[in-house]
């Protein structure tokens, strides 16, 4: 009798879940993947649907938009100074061929390009960590950190202890972390932040008794703002593994940028919005937005993206970047699980004669994503896309270089989660010198990588075909 009741209940819940999938259209293959999961894995499929399905996406958007609406008037006033600085920099121009892309990025990301920045690019994990620590050490007013992961290990303790010391000196220190990214953080570690005077908050915590039970919509951003004048963003989280100190993954490589100048205000706006969303606190104040000053010659545009924005800003921006390429596109990504649009963009560019090169790690901390990406190799190779796998360690950088004239560096992976479900931040660097340096670094990485030779699916073994097929089937929900 009990089994009959449970079976009937499961049937009803699966039917409701499938109806929900059909009533909230998305890409057909993602819908089919969910329906198959619900039918073939009745209990597990329901659990996964509850945790990472999308039925509450609209509610999450509405809640965040309401919070953002409260900040818009104040942030708009702070942006006036930034627009004034931008207007005075007419001596620095963006190439005419990029005007359409700049217009698109500005409409999608709400932030215009800013001139007069100083930009330093870091690839070495230890140098990234040291540069950020030195910037925090020099802080006089405030330190704002926003990261997907901060591990409670030696590296995390070093950051925590430095922040506590700066808080004791009177510096306002705030740390915003993703709840799922830091779910293993002990209470004692969290308490040490708060007892030391550091404000600590978590983004979208799971609180089932308050109806918060989803693991989707994660804050995958990595950024730091010190005194409203120095900013960092890129791909590096905070922890021993991200400094290459864990033998499991070997040497770890990230790409991060330090920005000094007007673009830092755009990073600050992102932090202020996210902090308000997580805590309700309003940080729109002059002390956090000092008037931008010209300190360099670089042009930078900071683009936030996330599920609160129905335009899928990062997805559109990447598609437009590849479509706009005239000579070359170099892509570095740790997780390559493209959708049809990105696949077509790569293939179309290669067919046009653009040299398209894709570099991903040969070893990954997410093996399903690695195998899913490998299932696309034959289609890419057939179109002329060059695919490489980096063999020296874990390649965690997220970089795109177009025509050796401009580049994107940020937190977004090349997968549907980063395109549609994660909150991400990307810095567009409209600077040929930086682009050439990134290109040179890319070519140095290729020397330590294996070129994937074109193959046909018929050349795969049965085991390989099955593994790649299953991974690809799961790609819409990775």
Topology diagram in text:
Layout: H1 2-23, H2 28-40, H3 42-52, H4 57-87, H5 99-109, E1 114-122, H6 125-137, E2 142-147, H7 154-168, E3 172-178, H8 187-195, E4 199-203, E5 223-226, E6 230-234, E7 252-253, E8 256-260, H9 263-279, E9 298-305, H10 313-324, E10 328-332, E11 336-337, H11 340-351, E12 355-361, H12 367-374, H13 377-383, E13 386-390, E14 394-395, E15 399-402, E16 406-410, E17 414-415, H14 416-421, E18 424-429, H15 432-446, E19 449-451, H16 462-474
Parallel strand pairs: 2-3, 3-4, 7-14, 10-12, 11-17, 12-13
Antiparallel strand pairs: 1-8, 1-9, 2-5, 5-6, 6-8, 9-18, 10-15, 13-19, 15-16, 16-18
Describe the protein's architecture and organization.
By secondary structure, the chain is α/β, with parallel strands linked by helices. The mean pLDDT is 85. It has 16 helices and 19 strands. It folds into 3 domains: 2-52; 58-96 and 112-299, Endonuclease Chain A (Endonuclease, Chain A, 2-Layer Sandwich); 313-477, Endonuclease Chain A (Endonuclease, Chain A), CATH 3.30.870. Helix 1 runs antiparallel to helix 2 (28-40). The two termini are 37 Å apart.
């Amino acid at each position: 009798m009990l089994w009959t009741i449970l079976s009937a209940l499961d049937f009803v819940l699966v039917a409701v879940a499938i109806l929900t999938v059909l009533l909230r259209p998305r890409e057909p293959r993602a819908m089919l993947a969910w329906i198959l999961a619900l039918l073939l894995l009745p209990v597990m499929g329901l659990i996964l649907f509850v945790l990472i399905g999308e039925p509450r996406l609209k509610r999450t958007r509405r809640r965040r938009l309401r919070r953002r609406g409260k900040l818009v008037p104040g942030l708009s006033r702070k942006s006036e100074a930034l627009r004034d600085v931008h207007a005075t920099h007419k001596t620095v121009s963006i190439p005419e061929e990029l005007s359409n892309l700049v217009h698109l990025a500005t409409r999608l990301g709400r932030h215009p390009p800013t001139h007069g920045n100083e930009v330093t690019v870091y690839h070495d994990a230890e140098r990234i960590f040291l540069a950020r620590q030195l910037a925090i050490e020099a802080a006089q007013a405030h330190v704002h950190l926003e990261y997907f992961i901060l591990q409670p290990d030696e590296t995390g303790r070093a950051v925590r202890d430095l922040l506590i010391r700066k808080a004791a000196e009177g510096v306002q220190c705030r740390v915003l972390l993703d709840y799922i990214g830091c779910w293993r953080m002990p209470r004692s570690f969290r308490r040490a932040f708060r007892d030391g005077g550091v404000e600590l908050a978590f983004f979208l915590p799971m609180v089932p008794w308050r109806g918060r039970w989803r693991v989707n919509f994660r804050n995958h951003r990595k950024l730091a703002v010190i005194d409203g004048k120095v900013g960092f963003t890129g791909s590096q989280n905070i922890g021993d593994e991200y400094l290459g100190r864990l033998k499991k993954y070997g040497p770890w490589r990230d790409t991060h940028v330090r920005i000094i100048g007007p673009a830092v205000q755009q990073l600050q706006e992102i932090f202020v919005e996210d902090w308000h969303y997580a805590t309700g606190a309003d940080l729109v104040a002059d002390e956090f937005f000092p008037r931008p000053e010209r300190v360099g010659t670089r042009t930078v545009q900071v683009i936030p993206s996330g599920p609160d924005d129905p335009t899928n800003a990062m997805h559109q921006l990447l598609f437009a970047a590849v479509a706009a390429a005239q000579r070359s596109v170099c892509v570095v990504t740790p997780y390559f699980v493209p959708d049809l649009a990105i696949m077509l963009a790569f293939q179309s560019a290669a067919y046009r004669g653009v040299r398209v090169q894709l570099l991903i790690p040969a070893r990954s901390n997410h093996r399903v994503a690695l195998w899913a990406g490998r299932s696309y190799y034959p289609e890419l190779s057939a179109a002329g896309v060059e695919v490489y796998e980096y063999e020296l360690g874990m390649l965690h950088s997220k970089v795109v270089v177009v025509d050796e004239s401009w580049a994107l560096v940020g937190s977004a992976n090349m997968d549907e989660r980063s395109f549609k479900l994660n909150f991400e931040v990307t810095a567009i660097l409209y600077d040929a010198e930086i682009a050439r340096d990134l290109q040179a670094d890319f070519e140095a990485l290729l020397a330590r990588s294996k070129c994937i030779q074109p193959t046909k699916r018929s050349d795969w073994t049965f085991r390989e075909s099955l593994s790649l097929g299953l991974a690809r089937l799961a790609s819409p929900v990775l």
